[in-house]
Amino acid sequence: MQPKPPFRRRLWGAVAATAAASLALVANPVAPAAAQTDDPATAETLGERPYMGWSSYSMQVYSDNGQWITGERLIAQSDAMHDQLQEYGYEYINVDAAWNGGVDEYGRPVPSATLYPDGLQAVIDHVHGNGQKFGLYFIPGLGPDVYEADLPIYGAPGCSTGDIAAQPLQDADYWGIGYKIDFANPCSQKYIDSIVDLIASWGVDFVKFDSVTPGSGVSDLSLDARDDVAAWSSALERHGIWMELSWALDIGYADLWAEHAQGWRVDWDVECYCPGEALTQWANVERLFPRVEDWWRLTGPERGWMDLDSLNVGNGEMDGLTRDERRTAMTLWAIAGSPMYLGDDMTDLDDFGIELLTNEEVIAVQQSGVPARPVSTATDRQTWYAQNPDGTVTVALFNLGRTEADMALDLSAMGLGGEWRVRDLWAGENEGRFEDDEFTAENVPINGTRLFELTPKDDAAVTLNDDAQRVGYEGDWVRNGGDEVAATVQPLRLGVGDSSTGEVPVPPEGAGTVVLNDDAEGISYSGTWNGSSGRGFGDYEDDVHWTETDGDAVEYTFVGTGIDYVTETDPSQGEVDVYIDGEFAETVDAHADSRSAQQVLYSVRDLPAGEHTIRLEKQGGRFMLVDRFDVVLESLIDPASAAVDKALGADADVAVELLRDGGELAGITHGGEALESGADYTVDGTTVVLQSAFLLSLPNGETSLDFAFRGDHLDDVHSAAAEGAAVELAFEGTGVAWTGPLAPDQGEVAVYIDGDLVATVDTSADARLTGRELFAVDGLDDGAHVFRAVKVSGDVMRTDAITYMAD
What we know:
Strand content: 35-45%
Number of domains: 5
Number of strands: 51
Low-confidence stretches: 1-44
Structural class: alpha+beta
Radius of gyration: 29 Å
Mean pLDDT: 92
């Protein structure tokens, strides 16, 4: 990933609250109008849908001129949007850094007279005259010149800018432009209010607030803009001004960002920083897929929108993407519910770019506000889907592999059954009716996509996971929090021999750990990675993955209680940031005076048993290498290794004790082939006996059997402790079933259909059991219904999945 270049932001005069530009006092400052009285309808709908528009930043980078944003050019962009895109929903003209020319006598920003000789107000009025909205750029903190000048704060007698900086002085932003503000001083909020009141009087509708921390390259709280965000949010909310946070926000504070803003960036800049050559590059688009997977649950109409940055798909000679990649980018932005704001010069869009940007069916996907989720990102051929409130399902297929490929619609993987009508949204054509795996999108190109809308037919079944946005919760619910049980596979390692021939078998060592080479399935690399084999340096399996680009990342999702990152240390290597489950863990350093292979650079133990994700991001040095990951498994079988002595003949049975209920064992495989229950093995309670007839067929040496255990649907649940907590789903159909776990700490749950109590379900059991049907009803009248389950007793209520039969 590409870090923001601090030299450019400094050169371009980024606004640190009122800018850290040279102090320029204005004798007759424009006094702000009184606080506006907002239209209640406008206030209620602000942020209800992801916005559409344009941002100047990509062109500022492309032109290598931070002063590109002249009044003449902004007016030209506004007119081009009005003529070509506005009828399709594009409405924001947002101006990035360097728009200001100093500050007034109250320390508030004033527009550049050089960029706007007729005044910025003339530009804003022109944008509004075109029926559009206007945005400006700010960052946290207080300009040093404003601090030193100790200016009075407008509308706040007794307050001055010299009193509101935190002491001792400290940086407020990534680039070190401004000083941190002390928001314990009431004058600080008044200062922010005075700025916002001023820009509101100009007619500003949108604020991009950049260098927000935690995030933006700093998550250790050495920079912390949370107070700035809250203060600006408070001031902007009074005027109904959209607040967009930037850049690469820390997901650990997602609830805070949702509380204060309408949208927030989730990754580094999409621009390639290759002036005059391209706006972006494919690697900067491809790396966003894991970020959408991280954030989709945390966005939506009730929270705000994940922002994937500028959508640079409007001009093939400028974008830096192929036609297929341009369509893929547009598709990803749409299914993510990301704001769609162009970075291209809108006066120079090509025909294909206009075709992409004005496809009404694709725009409708973005505006629906239902972010899609992936079936899996552990493959280069990815399926993403969104289960919409109207019963339709949006499905995007992405071919991120090295060759074109046929890609089948796997309905069951998306929780769908029965017959569905398929419509190709990019082509605007109906493909017909299909059941599971019957429809295949042929020849999906490299880095290409297909986008479909599925409509249920003939009692199609829809399964909604507990985290689906259509599922509603009342009360204090938690997703997972240690209550989940993940499906997993536990290897039983066997040493096979025949003591009568001198080959005495012994149980293998290393049980309980799975070693994954750097090229193992499921390890996801984003950026410009390469593979290298046959190096002869002592690497595991004599190969590694490597990159030279800061910001490139590798990610792996595993089920277990710990993981090791094993790599090489060397003088050419440097720092790597480690994230566990989306939260920053620590920075490790692979730099060493000499080369050493297979070094554990990061290790974690005692994670809650279940699914976790490790993410590593290159931060320094010439190279970053990945050699292997060692996953520590939860102990589910005892013993974890055993010896099989063929000399024992019929007495060579091996008994294994399950550390979960026997009903949770889904099966046993060897080399991918399933063992036959009752013949190759038997299960009695929690005891599994591997039969000698099977064991004697194994070749001598070390081998392993894989014990597969069931888990909660998609490996997660929601849980609540308080009585009266409820889960609810509105649907149109003829039947509904509720699935969840049974457990000793659970109790009775009251089930209602359309407001009528129809059953009281006992969800308790002697052991934790996954995926049990807790309630089902069919034969409902065709039409709208509401399923509702309410906690009555027990320590906790858990819910997993709800399936309904669509009419």
